[in-house]
Specification:
Layout: E1 4-8, E2 21-24, H1 26-41, H2 47-56, E3 58-60
Antiparallel strand pairs: 1-2, 1-3
Helix pairs in contact: 1-2
Protein name: DUF1059 domain-containing protein
InterPro entries: DUF1059
Organism: Vulcanimicrobium alpinum
Length: 66
């Protein structure tokens, strides 16, 4: 099973009070989070932005099926 990650805009200060949560594989979340940060929040696309977002992702833990 592939690990599932998420990032939540509510964890960052924002003038728009953005409430978007992105979830998926680590690569999917990072790709979409960068695009969202640039398009919706005016951040510059940079390696520093990618690393900041990567550090803010959380691995989701789910209970194993019985």
């Amino acid at each position: 099973m592939v690990a599932r990650y998420s990032i939540d805009c509510r964890e960052f200060p924002s003038e728009s009070n953005c409430s978007l949560t992105i979830a998926g594989t680590e690569d999917e979340v990072l790709l979409v989070a960068v695009e969202h940060a640039v398009a919706s929040h005016g951040h510059a696309r940079s390696p520093e932005l990618r690393e900041m977002l990567r550090g803010a992702m959380h691995e989701e833990h789910t209970a194993a099926a019985t």
